[in-house]
Amino acid sequence: MIKKNIATNEFGFVFNPATGDSYSSNPMAAEIIQLMKENLSLNEIKKMLLDKYEVDKMILEKDLDEFVGLLKENNLLSN
Amino acid sequence: MSKLKYERPLIKKMHAGMMNKFGSQDENTPVTHIDGVSVKSLIDTYGSPVFVLSEQKIRQNYKSAVRAFTTRYPKVQFAWSYKTHYNNAVCNIFHQEGSWAEVVSGFEYKKALGNGVPGSNIIFNGPDKHIDEMQLAIENDSLLHIDHFEELYLLIDLCARLDKKARVAIRVNMDTGVYPMWDRFGFNYENGQAWQALTKIIESGKLHLVGLHAHIGTYMLSTAAYGVAATKLCDLATKCKAELHTAVKYIDLGGGFPSANTLKGAIGQVPTPSVDEFAEVITSTILNYGFNTEELPLLILESGRVMIDDAGYLLGTVLANKKLSDGRKATIMDFGVNIMFTSFWYDHKISPAQEVSHFNEDTVMYGPLCMNIDIVRETVNLPLLNRGDHVVVHKVGAYNMTQWMQFIAMRPNIVLIDTNNHTHIIRKAETLDYLQELELMPDHLKRKN
Which domains does chain B carry? Predict the structure, then answer.
């Protein structure tokens, strides 16, 4: 899951104190990171987003997989 | 309760660095309507992809180009360049505005006749005029622009056999200070070939020399080159009168004026000269050359691209998003180089067609073909597009709908929005029946039931 020490704010700013790298995220990404920080599983996050947003399940699954891949590439995940 | 609009999640690493000296501008303002007609309704009605042309913009462009020249010179005639876009509806817009036809092949010539253009108002250019086509042009009193000596001799022979005098001009190529020089068409000025051809025309007694033609290049960014070309044609016209006792009736400076597209490799938007700037150089050169007022030649222009490029749009739809092996994003569209030939030359501006957030990403834009060369934009900064989202590609009116290929995908509908904002299909999307119409099956390959 997302590293515990990652700092975020409501404008989508993300900061990794371990590397000093900062990131900008769009509101959807910021919301997902926030839900991850609240220890929700990916399945729970997916269900919440499907209820809330006008999006096809298949597209959301693809986008979430890709987003998690991006977080991993940027060393923002703990495992 | 209705659900909220979804956007693909995106996170981007921030880089501290130098400011970009070109600054930034938002290129991604959505284009939801064209001439008051919604992009969504156009796609819902006519499918995706679909070419859309604005009649209003075509007429504006034409009037503005005519104004640029007629306010500076007394005798001006435009001839619509059929190869730029030869859909009959489009041609007829130009003919309604007063344009002659400029054609470079037999079928274009017949199209112009079919569109009701009087034969005497058709200019026949190009290096491949067939004998029967030249005969048709002679019988219709059209203007034949001779490209090479073989054609000149064929024409002399043909006129002798028909016992008719063809109205002719020669195409002249020349050094205008722009390189590479376009010297493959017509007769060269500097090495004396052009003069040799003119002399032969007069000596033959079979042809009526009426004009001089030059088409110095395409997408020309130098106005000075047109000044050089006009001077050299004026020199030839003067020499024709003095030594061959023949007054040339017109000087045709061809086309080549650029549109406002961005050429590949250009950094930022390179300013292109306006039609007014070209008109100023050309007309002042001829006016100051020294002709008597009553002997000023008619000035003919064969502009194509600048008249129609920005009146054409391609509407398309996102098929998929991908991540490439090197980490770059890729977007796959339902249109590619098959119908957008000019993507080989230009970085076409592409706008989203629906409301988007201000989050953008760089992406490679691919077409739908199973071919590696099918790249619409090598990199373009766009909002986060999802499958099914629509885009508008700008300034595709010139050449695409004549150079398009039926390859892997069929050619789509072309829709014209008229000056009252009504839509009309002016070329139907191709079908499998259309594609197979000309195919023939040898008996031994026929399927036996």
Answer: 33-52+311-432 (2.40.37.10), 86-303 (3.20.20.10)
